[in-house]
Write a structure and sequence with these properties.
This protein is mainly α and 159 residues long. It is built from 4 helices and no strands.
Length: 159
């Protein structure tokens, strides 16, 4: 049975807090990244909701173009959700790192390997979230490009 070490000095607690500061800053960064992801997701959802009534009123080529855009928006929603999943998973892993830092000191056990593995997993999931987000931004950029026939459109002179 593990017996907590209630004789931990203020200096020892301060050392653990110093060790936990970097992961806590990382949590703040992930929170900011999640804010960006959620904002992007909201814009994608708004665009899809804007297209839905237009779809019902459209016919022919315009109908097909709106359907194609809605498929792309649906795909982008899933991709941003994956970035959010990776990022939230990373945040949970970082929370576990901080918990183990304190729990290890409190109960007098060494969790060095576990902490290192959790931190590696957190970095991998963070990198996964960034990579998925980069993919979505590239996909979004290609979707927003102006259609070539619009760039070539000329108004006929009435004369």
């Amino acid at each position: 049975m593990l017996i907590p070490d209630f004789n931990t000095t203020n200096t020892e607690v301060a050392t653990v807090i110093q060790s936990a500061v970097a992961p806590v800053f990382l949590l703040a960064g992930i929170g900011a990244f999640l804010n960006v992801c959620v904002g992007r997701l909201a814009r994608i959802v708004d665009r899809s909701r804007n297209l839905e009534p237009r779809l019902l009123a459209s016919r022919g080529v315009e109908h097909d173009r709106i359907i194609e855009e809605l498929h792309l928006l649906d795909r982008r929603i899933r991709i941003v959700n994956a970035a959010v999943l990776f990022s939230v998973s990373a945040a949970v892993l970082i929370c576990l790192v901080v918990i183990l830092l304190f729990a290890g000191r409190l109960v007098g056990l060494q969790f060095g390997t576990e902490i290192a593995l959790l931190f590696i997993a957190a970095m991998l999931t963070t990198a996964g979230g960034f990579a998925v987000f980069l993919y979505e931004t590239r996909l979004g950029t290609t979707a927003v490009r102006v259609r070539s026939h619009l760039l070539e459109h000329r108004v006929e002179d009435p004369d």
